[in-house]
Amino acid sequence: MVIRVIEAVARIGKQRIGEHAQSGCEDILYYIVENPNLNGGYNHALVVTLEEKDGDFSYRGVELEELKDYRRYLYKGKKGNATDATPTCKIAKDIEKTFEKKFLRWFDGIDSSDLSGEERATLKNIKNVLFSNKDKIFKELQEKRSHLKQRENCIITLGFVKDGDLKYLADYPAFRNVLLKNSCDRFFRKYGGESRGTDALCSVCKEQKDEVYAYAIPWPFHTFDKPGFIAGGFRQSDAWKNTPVCLNCAINLDAGKKYIEESLDFSFYGFRYLLIPKLIIGDDYQEILDILSGMKKELKMSRKTRNRITDDEDEILDMVKDQKDFFSNSLMFYKKDNSAYRILLHIDGILPSRLRRLFEAKERVEGAFGIYNEMVLSEDKGRLIFDFGVLRRFFPRESGNVTHDKMFLEIVNRIFVGRYVDRHLLISFMMKRIRDDFVHGRSTLMNTLNGFMLLHYLKELNLLKDLEVDRMSGIVLKREELEALPLDKRVERFFEANREFFDSDAKKATFLEGVLVQKLLNIQWMEKNAKPFYTKLHGLKMNEALIKRLLPEIQNKLEEYEKNYYRELEAIIAEHFVLSGRGWKETDDELSFYFVLGMNLHELFRVDKEKEKTEETA
């Protein structure tokens, strides 16, 4: 599975580089060279200029120029005190230190570079000119640097005037080859040693190659930092046997990785994921790259109106879903901790048609929940819209010093690939959040309705095990229709519209008792500006015995207030109690959820509008 993803990345990279560039290095270098001004902090270049005539060099001076085409400078930085891949380097705080330790010191490594005799001779000539004019160059660098403002940064690089034209490092094969070779070192040098094989099969292109490398696979699908992770002999030098990759494929992988990280990197509720497309039919990646590029342009024009299932405004999944199934997608969730890169979850093989199902389920659920936006919620309370944030609210990053990241991602995985989700586990986590609201005096409305919506979404995808989905129901409640019905028919209609979740008399009785108890609490609030019956609800830790015991107590309280308008509702509840028998099969968390759901949907079951107007809570 992973190797297919790696192959897809290599083919994307190859497409980006261009097949005609495989024999040359210009286009390959385009993917290696870094932009020193990527973050806008280095807008200028100090160009140490030499005059070239008949192969000889002489010092000419220092030019200060605005940094425009960064590729001409061949910049590729290295961490720490190491010199960069070429003499081009960023000036840190101390210009002298940068000049000495980065720019000039780079030429000390010429002898150890794998260069031709002519190239090495050229670089030595340049080195001699620079070192013999070292003090003069430094003074001119300081003088030119003083023309910039205090906050402006710049790079030091090398230029050549030949026949009156200014040329840069990119114009000289010796520097291009050095950059290419220096950049390739990381494919086989790591942990203080080397690992490369000869005359071996490349695991990506499946061709026999003179040389293959150990560390060219992008992203840490596996590691080599422990002996047991290395195939054959536990020797670090044999690490290449795990995933041998030839130079061409290594560079293609690098280019593919760069494209994906720059263009297909999205946020997801505290995580980030890479979307990696993979062809199923055909081998022309240009078509898919053109499609993705078109999506990014379209997104810029319609960002605010896009339909999303994540929290990223740049999400393109709703556009991917409209494509045919000639490619699939991998979603690679990752996390960066300083320099460490960790893959948290890899979801593979997501077809556009699967994404279409996820979005269609979202639309159906939001349509069915429109009545709650209309009758129960208001603009200030929020609206019910489904995205994966609904799931995240029950599996937050941290809650009570416990992180739920792993469980959240596991459920996300199951939803994307279409595997069952444990309904009881979900309800258990929902009730933790709702009980916390309840005991701290916060409204339970949004968490309860979002929990109910999540269950409906999973039902639409047929991901709740042991839940019989009736494809023929599809009833969408309408306010006008519901309000025109007498109470018993209204209750019946509600249960019919949610039949999969109200498949027992115990659930129906519990739900309706929740409706009734909320009406009592509203009356208490109006009478006493307090809700003393709250304590009878045991912090929403409901069970069969408590639910059965509560009904007469609620009735007695309503009679005491002489405001028992709900005898018809009580009769319906009592009837379901009788039919439910003893020894309910529902868990306590389930009963608690149905009870609090009834409390929050009491608005749907008004018995007399005129009387209840006086019972509204503040």
Structure description:
With 618 residues, the chain is α+β, with helices and mostly antiparallel strands. The protein folds into five domains: 1-25 and 199-251, no CATH class; 33-181, no CATH class; 261-351, no CATH class; 352-469, no CATH class; 474-617, no CATH class. Helix content is 44%, strand content 15%. The protein contains 22 helices and 13 strands. It has helices at 2-17, 26-32, 95-104, 117-132, 134-145, 173-184, 247-263, 285-302, 317-320, 352-368, 370-375, 388-392, 405-417, 423-439, 445-460, 479-483, 487-497, 505-528, 544-560, 567-580, 588-600, 609-612; strands at residues 42-53, 56-66, 89-90, 153-162, 165-168, 189-190, 193-194, 196-201, 208-213, 265-268, 271-279, 327-337, 340-350. The strands form four sheets. Strands 1, 2, 3, 4 and 5 form a five-stranded mixed β-sheet that branches. Strand 1 and strand 2 (56-66) form a beta hairpin. It is elongated.
What distance lies between the first and last C-alpha atoms, to the nearest angstrom? 57 Å
- Give the domain tally: 5
Helix content: 40-55%
> Which outline best applies?
elongated
% residues in beta strands: 5-15%
Largest sheet: 5 strands, mixed
Could you outline the blueprint of secondary structure elements for this entry?
Layout: H1 2-17, H2 26-32, E1 42-53, E2 56-66, E3 89-90, H3 95-104, H4 117-132, H5 134-145, E4 153-162, E5 165-168, H6 173-184, E6 189-190, E7 193-194, E8 196-201, E9 208-213, H7 247-263, E10 265-268, E11 271-279, H8 285-302, H9 317-320, E12 327-337, E13 340-350, H10 352-368, H11 370-375, H12 388-392, H13 405-417, H14 423-439, H15 445-460, H16 479-483, H17 487-497, H18 505-528, H19 544-560, H20 567-580, H21 588-600, H22 609-612
Parallel strand pairs: 1-4
Antiparallel strand pairs: 1-2, 3-4, 4-5, 6-7, 8-9, 10-11, 11-12, 12-13
Helix pairs in contact: 1-7, 10-15, 14-15, 14-21, 15-21, 18-19, 18-20, 18-21
